[in-house]
């Protein structure tokens, strides 16, 4: 699913004929927890967790087949994996099409709805026993575009950012609104696996409000404090702060 979404950034001609509106994942109420908890060999992320992590809409189906207690456990697990996606609950896959069409999850218009979502997204560190989690942080100020690209590329391309346990941080999806120096508009940043894009939104920064940057990252081995520290280094241009958890000669496999 992530590979398909990434194609729209790589192949400009494909984007002319086909429009990527968003990613929808359907979770079976009865077997969802089992699939999300499944352990894969060699430290791989199981496919169910990956699909939930990538989704803009998560549809929990067959809710009539489980108890409210089990449904609550499933909701909580999904929300820990993907704190940004919208959850819909249904039976027999019946959903209102207005809830799953015209999402604009991958274009500049998504910046408007993203701003509202970010205001209500909790910033607390998720439970560390989750394989895939959502972390979010906010940093005031402006970012230089070149430095921001380096920050994202080290996470998505070089994969040389590690947490306190020296484990590689693996980002499945990245989304946020940032303030680029000398740009009047808010800029939305989106990433899926190794590919990402920066695009101006129709929304301009108001003169009477402080410019700020808010990022949401979904992945494994993520450490909110380290990520925020590295981003602050990008904003303040104090590269010495990168050295503790960013090492060019220790690229993750």
TrEMBL record:
Quote the catalytic activity from the record. Answer: GTP + H2O = GDP + phosphate + H(+)
Q: Which residues form the CobW C-terminal domain?
A: 132-235
Which keywords does this chain's UniProt record carry? Chaperone, GTP-binding, Hydrolase, Nucleotide-binding, Zinc
InterPro entries per the record?
CobW-likC_sf, CobW-like_C, CobW/HypB/UreG_nucleotide-bd, P-loop_NTPase, Zinc-reg_GTPase_activator
Q: Does the keyword Transport apply?
A: no
Does this entry carry the keyword Chaperone? yes
Q: Which Gene3D superfamilies match?
A: CobW-like, C-terminal domain (3.30.1220.10), P-loop containing nucleotide triphosphate hydrolases (3.40.50.300)
Pfam families xref list: cobW, CobW_C
The residue ranges crossing the membrane are none
* Family named by the database record: Belongs to the SIMIBI class G3E GTPase family. ZNG1 subfamily.
Can you say what this protein is called? COBW domain-containing protein 7 isoform X3
> What is the originating organism of this protein?
Equus przewalskii
The gene from which this protein is expressed is: ZNG1A
């Amino acid at each position: 699913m992530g590979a398909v979404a990434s194609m729209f950034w790589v192949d400009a001609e494909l984007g002319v004929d086909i429009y990527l509106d968003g990613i929808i994942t359907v979770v079976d109420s009865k077997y969802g927890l089992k699939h999300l908890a499944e352990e894969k060999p060699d430290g791989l992320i199981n496919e169910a967790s990956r699909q939930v992590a990538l989704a803009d809409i998560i549809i929990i189906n067959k809710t009539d087949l489980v108890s409210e207690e089990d449904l609550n456990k499933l909701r909580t697990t999904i929300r820990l994996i993907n704190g940004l996606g919208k959850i819909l609950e249904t039976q027999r896959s019946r959903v209102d099409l207005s809830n799953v069409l015209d999402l604009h999850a991958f274009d500049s218009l998504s910046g408007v709805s993203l701003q509202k979502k970010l205001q209500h997204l909790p910033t607390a560190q998720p439970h560390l026993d989750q394989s895939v989690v959502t972390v979010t942080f906010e940093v005031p100020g402006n970012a230089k575009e070149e430095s921001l690209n380096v920050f994202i590329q080290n996470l998505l391309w070089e994969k040389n950012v590690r947490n306190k346990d020296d484990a590689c941080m693996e980002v499945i999806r990245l989304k946020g609104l940032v303030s680029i120096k000398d740009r009047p508009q808010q800029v939305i940043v989106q990433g899926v696996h190794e590919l990402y894009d920066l695009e101006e939104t129709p929304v301009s920064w108001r003169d009477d409000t402080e410019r700020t940057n808010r990022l949401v990252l979904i992945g494994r081995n993520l450490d909110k404090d380290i990520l925020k520290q590295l981003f602050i280094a990008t904003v303040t241009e104090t590269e010495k702060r990168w050295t503790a958890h960013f090492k060019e000669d220790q690229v993750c496999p």
